[in-house]
Amino acid sequence: MSGSTARVAKAFAFDRPDRTPLFEIFQPYHPIHWPVCGRNLATDQAMAWDAMSDGVAWEELLDASIRAQFQIARFFGLDMVRLNGVPARNYRRPRKVGPNRWLLDGVPYHVNERTRLVELENPGDRQSDSRRTSEEGLRRAIEQWDGAIPAAGVSAPDPVLAGVRELAAAEGLDWVFMGEIGVGTGVAFFPPFMLMWLLEEPELVRRWQAMQMATGFPRTRDIIAQGCPVIAMGGDVSCDKGPFVSPAVYRDFVLPVIQEHVRLIHAGGARAVYTSDGNHWPIKDMFFFESGIDGYKEVDQAAGMTWPRLIEEGVAGRICIIGNLDARHTLCHATTAEVEAEVIACLRYGQRFPGGHILHASHSVHEDVKPENYIAAVNAYRRYFGLPLLEELPF
């Protein structure tokens, strides 16, 4: 039996599929969308912000996103798909103040001419990620939480997932959809004061983690029920030099939450994938084996998570590797010939095992990935398995 569903299932089960499954995450508004989907509200961020400033209907934003995400996944022939969301139904409207300039909540934004993405004019502004959370505000929210846990099934259905699944079914595409739910294990995103809490006020951190699980666990059940048999958990726990916290802190605060989340995912009949950049070798046994995960995504070879060492350390023989194309250097700076060589080497490493590998960039097709390099990567994959090549695109 072939097809995307069987292909991905076999890869996770270490049962050799007919070919290595293909998976990718496309950053919204990346120029790679333009020759495939056209430039529209879902593929050009400046157009989206102009439309939102004019009060475009949420339904129009949703429909454009569904169609673009379906078209890009179909064009590249993916087997597993992870979707991006859309603005909230009652989205905050930016106000246009000049060509490619807007104000949102009184804060200036503009288009980065290199990436064509909308970003803060002043990265140090109060709306930047590092300044959005105040210690006093978060402490107050934690202390006031009454411990309530939402009942399962109460979160709203994902309209993008529903729309793309409908389009895929209409064309007979049996894609495997990956949901992504974090429950507070991504210590790389902890504000500095929370890192201090780990040492000075550990019970405050545990209560905050309980808040994350109280909302994230019901959402996980719902996403599985809505048609996602693979759940990506996490948030970064390591950088190039190793984990952001000591192995002891990881064992006490991070590992138990991951283990509980994995048990919940497995109870729902889904596969659990942990997603994190960085060098995890100092926490290898906990991260890969004690956690109970089925797959590992964002495999960061530039941080030392290379195929040879994944094989040598016994990881690749037990955990499905979802990677390992280098999206930090190769897909951004290499020649297309170098990209093609890396794809072939990656596929050959993955095929040393009966399954256990899904081809994927080490992070995503992000703003610095050259469109022509990703095209070259997929064509190298298709050539390796004797599939028709993608048509050339006008970039």
Overview of this protein structure:
This protein is an alpha/beta fold and 395 residues long. 41% of the residues lie in helices and 12% in strands. The chain contains 14 helices and 14 strands. The protein has helices at residues 4-12, 34-37, 45-53, 58-76, 135-144, 159-170, 192-200, 202-225, 247-267, 284-290, 307-312, 330-333, 336-350, 371-384, and strands at 23-24, 80-82, 95-98, 101-104, 107-111, 118-120, 176-181, 230-234, 238-239, 242-243, 271-275, 295-297, 320-322, 357-358. The radius of gyration is 21 Å and the shape is globular. The model has no long low-confidence stretch (mean pLDDT 94).
Content-based structural category = alpha/beta
Overall pLDDT score: 94
Helix content: 40-55%
Based on DSSP secondary structure assignment, what is the total number of beta strands?
14
Separation of the first and last Cα atoms: 37 Å
Largest sheet report: 8 strands, parallel
Give the ordered list of helices and strands.
Answer: HEHHHEEEEEHHEHHEEEHEHEHEHHEH
